[in-house]
Design brief:
TRAPP_III_complex_Trs85; mainly alpha; globular; about 75% helix
């Protein structure tokens, strides 16, 4: 039951965040994009992290999907998005879903690079590199 409540909370808070963004004027919106989170967004992140933690290792794929949704959803802070995507990648790694791990780790690295966090970006790229080099992933270069 708690899981359902948290899922609904994340959904409602994401809707509230979209509405709050529409209310912001153009100048305010431009200045806050990429650097800060709205209250609704922060609450959605907290609820999502709690849900991902509850799902834990017993349901790691679901936990990764929650983190991925948070990282690719309405979060307007690039660094927070990168952290969520990286954590989702590690959940996939423990499953083991190596291709999903590599894909999400590369996404996290790109977000870190976008946020100016080069050391984190390099670390993520290096974590994903062995999956690309040693795998039987036929269509990797497509």
């Amino acid at each position: 039951e708690i899981e359902n409540v948290l899922r609904e909370a994340v959904g409602f808070l994401q809707v509230a965040d979209k509405e709050q963004k529409e209310i912001l004027s153009g100048a305010e919106k431009k200045s806050s994009l990429g650097t800060s989170l709205t209250l609704a967004n922060r609450m959605a992140v907290h609820a999502g992290l709690l849900l991902a933690d509850m799902l834990g290792q017993s349901r790691g794929k679901e936990s990764a999907e929650v983190l991925f949704r948070l990282g690719s959803g309405p979060i307007n802070c690039v660094l927070s998005s990168a952290v969520m995507l990286e954590q989702a990648a590690w959940c996939y790694f423990r499953q083991p879903l190596e291709r999903k791990f590599a894909f999400h780790m590369i996404q996290a690295a790109c977000k870190y690079h976008q946020a100016g966090q080069e050391q984190h970006a390099v670390r993520c790229f290096q974590s994903a590199k062995p999956m690309y080099l040693s795998s039987q992933w036929v269509h990797i270069s497509d």
